[in-house]
């Protein structure tokens, strides 16, 4: 833990110690693994990261929506410590332990819907999504899986097939899993003006019915707000319409809440916003405050349709990760982090909108809760401007503010602050971003 409570730059970013590590890395770490901002972190506390040069940066990325509760939270760290000294692993499939059950009980309570639920625990988001497909296929006896434009679901073979974007996720890595079909989703900024969520859903449903036939579809897998694809919230009505169609046709509606889950969007889950109740929910990231844990939660009759022994993995539901999850969930409850996320959105969106109006380089500002984005376009058009995006992000990094990009066109700056980020750090981070955008507009 650092005692630092403020952004503090001691060297240029990255500094000499980080640059030396970056050089050392090249001889040991695979080139295929990249880092957005190669400052080498030595400690983290609250919403701050401290690097090998003693620089302290404001974290507006939360390790891609993972440390929703913040860094170094006692409820998480103490439980990890306690569990690690009791035992670190037995394998739940060999000799089980209580923490796994407690996490599944919490998931049954917190995920949308009051129906009877079961959960299975895994280690990564991709693994959770992959298992939703296994479960849906086993339960329905059908094979086809429907996904959407701009979707991101992971990097394993099956989830690469579910993911839309070729570079960098799929390029050169095929062949991909069969029986995966992609349809249009809802992207209000880029869809025909005035297209409603219901109309966009009807178009997707028409594609599915004409090209696949409803009765061949095991599952529709969707991110309720698309993450890597560009923080795209579908038009209101899109998700409920799709969900109703799934129910009417015996298709399993799978919500990939890996990035949107655990208070990030101002609700426990993004589906809550329109009262959508998925049949299966995939979660990961924010669930365990930084420990690798993921889950599939859903209708008891779907999960229990899988034969005994059909789901698992050596590390799935690791006891230390479960302990961390229980601490993270307790923190979200006691500190009402869903409300905190809403507050972050309310403080940030007006500023981003004003910035867009003032500078002309931002085509769209969007987001919900603390999942916020600015899409950069050539002024007066919807033409993506990835180069401007890169310059804005680089300027933020140079000033010690960690922001990430996303988007099919690489032109979206996304903000994912820890939900516990002190107001003054959010304010300071936004001021740096505003300055960077103004400089970009003045180029
Ligand atoms: N589903 C909606 O956002 C992970 C990817 C980072 P894993 N997103 C960050 C990268 O470039 O690899 C993600 C997601 C959604 C699934 C996943 C996959 O989760 O824990 O990375 O496997």
TrEMBL record:
Designated gene of the protein: gabT
SUPFAM superfamilies: PLP-dependent transferases
Alphabetized Pfam families for the sequence: Aminotran_3
UniProt keyword terms in alphabetical order: Aminotransferase, Pyridoxal phosphate, Transferase
Enzyme Commission number, as recorded: 2.6.1.19, 2.6.1.22
InterPro entries found in the cross-reference section: 4NH2But_aminotransferase_bac, Aminotrans_3, Aminotrans_3_PPA_site, Class-III_PLP-dep_AT, PyrdxlP-dep_Trfase, PyrdxlP-dep_Trfase_major, PyrdxlP-dep_Trfase_small
Name of this chain's protein: (S)-3-amino-2-methylpropionate transaminase
Keyword Transferase annotated: yes
């Amino acid at each position: 833990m650092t005692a630092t409570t403020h952004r503090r730059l001691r060297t240029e970013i990255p500094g000499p110690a980080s640059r030396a590590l970056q050089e050392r890395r090249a001889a040991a770490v695979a080139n295929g693994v990249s880092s957005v901002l190669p400052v080498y972190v030595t400690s983290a506390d609250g919403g701050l990261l401290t690097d090998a040069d003693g620089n302290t940066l404001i974290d507006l990325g939360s390790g891609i929506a993972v440390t929703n509760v913040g860094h170094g939270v006692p409820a998480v760290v103490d439980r990890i410590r306690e569990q690690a000294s009791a035992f670190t692993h037995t394998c739940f499939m060999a000799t089980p332990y209580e923490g796994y059950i407690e996490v599944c009980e919490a998931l049954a309570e917190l995920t949308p819907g009051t129906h009877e639920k079961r959960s299975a625990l895994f280690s990564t988001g991709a693994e959770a999504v992959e298992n939703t497909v296994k479960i849906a296929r086993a339960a329905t006896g059908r094979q086809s899986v429907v996904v959407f434009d701009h979707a991101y679901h992971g990097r394993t073979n099956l989830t690469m097939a579910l993911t839309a974007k070729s570079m960098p996720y799929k390029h050169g890595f095929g062949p991909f899993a069969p029986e995966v079909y992609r349809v249009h989703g809802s992207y209000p900024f880029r869809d025909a003006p005035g297209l409603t969520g219901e109309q966009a859903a009807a178009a997707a449903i028409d594609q599915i019915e004409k090209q696949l036939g409803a009765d061949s579809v095991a599952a529709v897998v969707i991110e309720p707000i698309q993450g890597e694809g560009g923080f795209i919230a579908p038009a209101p009505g899109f998700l409920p319409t799709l969900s109703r169609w799934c129910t009417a046709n015996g298709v399993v509606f799978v919500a990939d809440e890996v990035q949107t889950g655990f208070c990030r969007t101002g609700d426990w889950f993004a589906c809550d916003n329109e009262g959508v109740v998925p049949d299966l929910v995939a979660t990961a990231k924010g669930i365990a405050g930084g420990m690798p844990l993921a889950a599939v939660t859903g209708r008891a009759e779907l999960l229990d349709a899988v034969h005994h022994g059909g789901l698992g993995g050596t590390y799935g539901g690791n006891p230390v990760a479960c302990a961390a999850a229980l601490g993270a969930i307790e923190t979200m409850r006691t500190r009402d982090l869903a409300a905190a996320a809403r507050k972050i959105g309310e403080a940030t969106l007006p500023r981003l909108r004003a910035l867009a109006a003032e500078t002309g380089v931002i085509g769209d500002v969007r987001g919900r809760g603390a999942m916020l984005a600015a899409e950069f376009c050539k002024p007066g058009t919807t033409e993506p401007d990835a180069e401007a995006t890169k310059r804005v992000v680089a300027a933020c990094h140079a000033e010690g503010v960690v922001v990430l990009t996303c988007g099919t066109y690489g032109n979206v700056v996304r903000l994912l602050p820890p939900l516990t980020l002190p107001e003054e750090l959010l304010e300071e981070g936004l001021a740096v971003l505003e300055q960077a955008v103004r400089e970009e507009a003045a180029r």
